[in-house]
Amino acid sequence: MTDNVENIIIEQLRAIRGDIAGLSAKVETLTLRVHSVEDHITTMRKDLANLHGDIMVTHKRLDQVDEKLDHIDKRFDLAPA
Of 79, 3, 32, which Cα lies nearest the Cα of 11? Predict the structure, then answer.
């Protein structure tokens, strides 16, 4: 009877070990995927920062063009009445 109980316990422990091994592989896969997502988010943040810089440069250039147009308007008396 004791041998039978020990065999059942050993079988259950082996099943648990197999389940844990499967879960461990899944956790490893999920960890890799999370790292990949984090890398993509970092890249997107850098891209967003670059876009913000580009927008600021564009605004500055538009302001300069606007100033030049104002100067031309004043020079040729084209300002709206």
Answer: 3
Maximum CA pair distance of the chain?
A: 111
Query: pTM of the full predicted structure?
Result: 0.65
Cα torsion at 64, 65, 68, 74 (round to 10°)?
Answer: -120
Q: Contact 76/70 with Cβ under 8 angstroms?
A: no
Note the pLDDT tens digit of each residue in 36-52. Answer: 999 999 999 999 999 99
To 5 degrees, how large is the angle CA 29–CA 33–CA 38? Answer: 150
Number of H helices, E strands in the chain: 1, 0
